[in-house]
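Chapter summary example.
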Amino acid sequence: MKRTTKAEKEARRSFSEVVKTPWIRSATIVGLIFLAVGLAAIFAFKAVNIGSFQIISDVKAFARDYGILGVFLATILAGTVVPLGSPALVVAAASLGIHPIPLVVAATTGFTIGMTINYYMAYRLGRSYVARKFGAEKLEEATILWSRWGWILYVIFGLIPFMPVEFLAFICGLLKASIKTFLVLSFTPRLIVFAFLAYFGEAIGSWIGII
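The structure predicted for these 211 residues follows.
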């Protein structure tokens, strides 16, 4: 029988502390609620055959003309912690027939720009600015988590749609983390997430009869 090493026990303990952190637990609960509401809405749209509604045709036409630009601008704001729900936005845009590839590129680029704004705001304005924005206690908790996990935590948050990775961008700027690493690890995880969500949204649009 394989023994659990001290390092493995410490890693498990540390990860348990991450999950139990109040603001992370709150984000998880809110994310799961939105997921449940979203799934319920999808089944409701299927039941009422929403694809036959005239308003959907109008929305599709608007999305075709302005959707990519709209997603790009919205994800910049979403990356700066404005609660616009970029993952849900990507799913909705794809379900309306916007091609996944330009959609993913626009959403990932916009979100990375928003995250970079967070980074530079914290880099230039310092700890007092971040503490005023989020609270000293939350900032202290995030700093401790970063000291234990660093970029691993950042990547994990980036790969989970409802985790507040935008907040960690402020921590990166505050601690003056490598900007090159920051850009790569901001862009790549969200590229993966948005690609999955875009093709998921496209499948949903087809299933409920919009596409």
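To summarize the output: The chain has one domain: 20-207.
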